[in-house]
Structures are given as structure tokens and as C-alpha cells.
Write a sequence for this structure.
């Protein structure tokens, strides 16, 4: 009888230890990049990655949207790696025409272009993970705020709030 009680206690301790490890894992580490949601420091803007199909274009690593919370403002983003695979270059656009567009049309609707960095504790910066890799803890879009403040959104009321350039992991969107 004593042996079976110890055996049950041992199993309970093992289950609790595994549960403790799972709970202590940061949420971003258990989330794939194409399911990650981020928010800026003031929680005014939300950056949401879209689930990427396995058969998507090889050059497109990630797609995302940036929404101004409590507003209809929505920006679309795409990340493409350099031809040599060196850097994840993002383009953030606002109301681009659908279908084939000219270079001038694309230029007029492009809000920001630049390299997206994944930030870790200790101020380490890495390149953005691809869609099916574990998500980043935080993202840095260098000079994104400046680009937004100088872009003409052609809104009735000009924007008064701009996002910070760092977006921190908020949650993971479940598989749909």
C-alpha cells in the first residue's frame, strides 16, 4: 500500500513538473510567426500576422495587417526576403489598387519599407522569423512612426496618434 501511494505521488509530481515547464514557456515561443499578434507600447496599434499557406510564393515570408485600434485605419504588409535570403524586407501599404499596379501606383500607396527585426531580451536583434517558425518576442520597424507621420492618408481628420516602432507580442491566434 505504501509503495502504491509513493508511486501515485511520483506520477503527480511528474505531471506537475511538466505542467510547470509548459506554463513557464513564454507564449511567443509556442506560437508560429504567422499566428502572432503584436501591439505597440500604448496599445493604439495592433500588428497581426496572417496564416501563410504552405504553397505560397517562396519569396513572400510573411503577410500582416496593422490596425489603428478604435478606428477604421488598416494597413497591409508583406515581408519578402532578399534574393540571396539575407534580410526580411517589409513593405507596408495603404489602400493599394488590386491587381497589376505600376511602380508609380505602388509608390503612392507605400507607407513604409524597411527591414523588420525580431527583438529578444537583452536588446539582441535578429531577423524576423519566417511564417512557420516560432514567433518573435517583439518586432522593430525602424522609422515606421516617422514614415506614418509623413504619409498622406487623405483622411477627413489627420492622424494625431502614431505607433511606436517596437511592437510587443500580445497573443497567438489559434489555427482556423
Amino acid at each position: 500500500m505504501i509503495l502504491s501511494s509513493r508511486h501515485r505521488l511520483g506520477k503527480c509530481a511528474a505531471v506537475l513538473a511538466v505542467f510547470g515547464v509548459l506554463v513557464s514557456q513564454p507564449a511567443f515561443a509556442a506560437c508560429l510567426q504567422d499566428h502572432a499578434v503584436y501591439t505597440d507600447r500604448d496599445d493604439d496599434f495592433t500588428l497581426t500576422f496572417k496564416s501563410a499557406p504552405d504553397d505560397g510564393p517562396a519569396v513572400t515570408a510573411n503577410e500582416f495587417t496593422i490596425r489603428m485600434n478604435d478606428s477604421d485605419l488598416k494597413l497591409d504588409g508583406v515581408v519578402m526576403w532578399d534574393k540571396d535570403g539575407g534580410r526580411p524586407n517589409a513593405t507596408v501599404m495603404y489602400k493599394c489598387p488590386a491587381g497589376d499596379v505600376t511602380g508609380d501606383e505602388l509608390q503612392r500607396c507605400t507607407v513604409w519599407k524597411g527591414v523588420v527585426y525580431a527583438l529578444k531580451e537583452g536588446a539582441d536583434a535578429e531577423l524576423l522569423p519566417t511564417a512557420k517558425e516560432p514567433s518573435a518576442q517583439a518586432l522593430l520597424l525602424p522609422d515606421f512612426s516617422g514614415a506614418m507621420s509623413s504619409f498622406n492618408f487623405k483622411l477627413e481628420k489627420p492622424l494625431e496618434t502614431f505607433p511606436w516602432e517596437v511592437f510587443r507580442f500580445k497573443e497567438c491566434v489559434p489555427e482556423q
